[in-house]
Amino acid sequence: MDEFLKQLVSNAPDALLIADREGIITFWNRGAERIFGHTAAEAVGRSLDLIIPENLRKRHWDGYGEVMAAGKTRYETGLLTSPGIRKDGVRLSLEFSMILLRNELGGMEGCASIMRDVTERWSREKELRERLTACEKNLAGSGGP
62 and 86 in contact (C-beta within 8 Å)? Predict the structure, then answer.
């Protein structure tokens, strides 16, 4: 079973990563390499700032510090959305879940995330919303229903 779990975690198409209490990346799978463009060798040992857009870092670290201190998050059962950034500077739209990691005494050790790039889907949905708005304006202007 351990070998199957290793294969699952290492080869999952979604980004699977682990960060310690200070937000230093300690695990980075192939999915993370594909999505973010950094190899595991480039990412492990570095701050999560590697994938967080600069304008969102303060907010992220404020929240991260609160979660590590309190040992809980209001997002434990939910799917989060957030922008991310690739190695080449391209911004991504991400959906992800967080798993809090604890030691055998229940103390916080860090967190794991499962992330998926939904940039393409968000772009399509934005285009559809814009088209719908334009259609509604046209109908309203033509005296339609």
Answer: no
